[in-house]
Amino acid sequence: MLACSKKIWKLLETIIYILLYASTILIVIIAIIITALLLKDSVKFFLNIAIYKFLFGTIWNIQDLTNPLFGTIPLVFGSLLVAIIAITIATPISVASAIYIAYFCKKKTRNNLITFFEIVGGLPSVVFGYFAISTIGPLLSNIASTLNINSQYENTLSAGINIGIMIMPTITLMSLTAIMEIQNTLFNASIALGATKVETIRRISLPMSYKKIANAVLLSFARAIGETTIVIMAAGNIPEITYNVFQPIATITSQMSLLLRSDHDFNSINTAAAYALGILLLTITFTINYTAILISRKKKLNT
């Protein structure tokens, strides 16, 4: 009876192992298939448009059906500008929140705040997009008009601020996890030696957790670049290079959405351009994510 029970448990363990292994392989296969399909469907585009014109062209104009221009510099510029605004706003606030939750909150308050951030982090991006067009956009436009700055309700700064708000919970929770992993004995020893909490955070907590915090920031930066709904609703989708953050701008994702919505047959050069933009976006986000991996694996230098 005992031998039979052991055989059953051994069989169950084998089945569980196979399921876990298959799940892992499935994820890898799906990623490979998506990349392969993007490459396959973008071939039509690169057979008609030179890759150097695509990567280094400074004009994106798909409205001219006789001579469309597919220069992606304005789109890459717009994506990076919106993401930089978002990460610049989100990072200091999120890291400060993580420090407060880790070291200055009571346990019950900490648990409630973590639950709150988890809920906010799960909100759909359309909610933040609505907040952008109904509140942030008009507010920024009115401020700009008061300062005699040319502005519109749909603008770069509005999109960046709302994406920053969207990624704050993610950076906060990942930074909190990194900070909380530090051994309490080190923190308590520093306090026992006469250091204040702020000194201990500055000299021990942040130096020991900066790699994982940087990892959180980079992953959120990649998410900001890939955001679609907010930039469609709030940024204006005008593919021009402008340094006036109160003016509309277009991103890679907003133009991908426009291209796919404008072609009902999915068989035109515009659709092929959308797939080419998908490859470009995949390359950018892969580079950012790989950089985050390298930072997290980098050995801490001896000081």
Automatic annotation (TrEMBL):
It is a multi-pass membrane protein. It holds the Pfam family BPD_transp_1. Its main location: membrane. The chain crosses the membrane at residues 15-38, 45-63, 75-101, 113-137, 157-179, 213-235, 272-295. Residues 76-292 form the ABC transmembrane type-1 domain. It comes from the Bacteria. It is found in: Cell inner membrane; Cell membrane. InterPro entries: MetI-like, MetI-like_sf, Phosphate_PstC, Phosphate_Transport_Permease. The keyword Cell inner membrane applies. PROSITE patterns: ABC_TM1. Keywords: Cell inner membrane, Cell membrane, Membrane, Phosphate transport, Transmembrane, Transmembrane helix, Transport. Belongs to the binding-protein-dependent transport system permease family. CysTW subfamily. NCBIfam families: phosphate_pstC. Part of the binding-protein-dependent transport system for phosphate; probably responsible for the translocation of the substrate across the membrane. This is Phosphate transport system permease protein.
